[in-house]
User: Fold this.
Amino acid sequence: GAVVSQHPSRVICKSGTSVKIECRSLDFQATTMFWYRQFPKQSLMLMATSNEGSKATYEQGVEKDKFLINHASLTLSTLTVTSAHPEDSSFYICSARDNTPGLSGYTFGSGTRLTVV
Amino acid sequence: GESVGLHLPTLSVQEGDNSIINCAYSNSASDYFIWYKQESGKGPQFIIDIRSNMDKRQGQRVTVLLNKTVKHLSLQIAATQPGDSAVYFCAENRAQFYFGTGTSLTVIP
Assistant:
């Protein structure tokens, strides 16, 4: 089945620094990937839609200059949290859809736990 | 046991009983729905999906029911097992997927 790999699984960074999270589709090509953020005991909130070769589409209220998304290839999207602050600490999850006919749904990465200290 | 989503975010059932997890969706234009299971510290895992032209779909031990009239989804888990303990989310597709609040299922051995 389709596999999405997310790296790193955990990261701790200092306030003011930037952190890059990678999302890779391992056995399929994904023209579109999605980035979600999840706070403890809450649902997944869609942050942005990452489109290969073009600009990402951000959901309302998500700062595009703070959460930089790059989707340079059909198998890799990156999310960079710039000038991180403690309130950015969260669980970040990416997903991608395999467009092979017959497969349903979106495959999710295993998530990245970001802690900003 | 049965949940009502936003009003009952936790559900506890005895092992072997059936579980019913409910979800209300917001957009009548949504044409595709998925139930996901999320274990602690992990990403969501696909359980079962249903398109809007169906009202029922069955998988292994799971059944999803869709009532478009009242914009309601339910996930039924038969013979619930301890390994079913997790948070369950419904997601509706409107170009992108939007997740519901989630219900935390605890199976009591």
Remarks:
- Chain B has no helices and ten strands.
